[in-house]
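Hey L., structure's done. Input below.
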Amino acid sequence: MAHGIALINLGCRVNRVELDLMAESLLRMGCHIVEEDEAQAIVINTCAVTAEAEAKTRKAVRKAALMPGAPLVVATGCVASLFAEELASLAPNVVVEAEKDKVADRVLEELGFAPESVSDDGLVISKPTPTGRTRPGIKIQDGCDNRCTFCIVWKARGAGKSLDPRKVVSQVKDAMSRGAQEVVLTGINLGSYKVQLEDEGEKIFRLPDLLEYVLEKTEVGRLRLSSLEPPDVNARLVKVIAASNGRVAPFLHICLQSGCDATLARMGRVYRTELYRKAVEEARSELSTIALGTDLIVGFPGETDKEFEESYEFCRQMGFSKMHVFRYSKRPGTPAATAPNQVNPKVMAERAKKMRDLGNKMRFDAAKKLIGTCDNVVVQYPGKGISGGLFDVQVDPTIELDELVAMRFDEVLPNGTLKATRL
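Output:
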């Protein structure tokens, strides 16, 4: 009888990719992926990026441990790496396995089962990923060598490391064999990707080289990059995207965190707004229709009204099409947590709302500029897809799921969704 395992993901795209890998390992061992109330074991991939994320982790672990039948709960991920004893103490049926590649073995070991061997022919995955996502991700990089004063993730993830480009190609081809039309390349510090291959003349592969290599070695419809740091957006990268004729999505998520140099300095960020502006100008000079996304923190310790307004104005000038706005979250063990002039939570909430309102306006304005243009759209749900620029698109509901379809954008709906016609 197959063992029923439920999967819960908290946090970033990298976590989702890692959970897919765990799911595949479990499937190969003869397990089935089921809902939480049917599970013998529940795997939770945790997140420590903010205090709120960590609180959600504890809540999710407690809830899972109290499910009928007291299933085994296996916690992994960043919180498991940082606070293993605390998680394990939440309930007697909770175990912690910080090493993600050992989670599947640990689940069956704790349940007292021997793994069954399931061949590739017998392994049925109805979508490009075991968890049903249409646009699978491939983790090509992990860890981070930066030391931002607000961040604890580098402690959980360790130093930067990159995946051999030949393994990247293999994983892209595997995703394609399951019907994936778009593959997302992910990492904790994606732009730091660097691999030296001694058997290929000691060639050094950086991110632009990897993109060219994957495009050459596969027929993948579209590659997408997850978030990048501003210093890693350079002329070579942008030229590769522009020359790909849409096979690399015309979208760059360039982390900002603040549009004020004084705040960036306190954050320990490795750039200032001048470099960021140059990165954006470089991207738009090669591809005028490229869409830009970013992350932004408001209420960082010491952020004055003047600094916030400076950050707000810089964001307005950049014209982002997608903004993730976060209120500063104090992380014990980081320099920022004990920094002076902590910002009042009410002030943070007001600033976050103002910045999100700006982000919504810029996204709608960016969508309007696309009317009459064309792009390829991945159909994710009946009648709904994602454009190369990461806009939601309303499409003919009769179009097959997972298709990559050339579309013309005809209008923008009030909610910012583009309405499109198949070419």
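Residues 3-111 form a domain with the Rossmann fold fold (CATH 3.40.50.12160). The chain is about 35% helix and 20% strand.

-- N.
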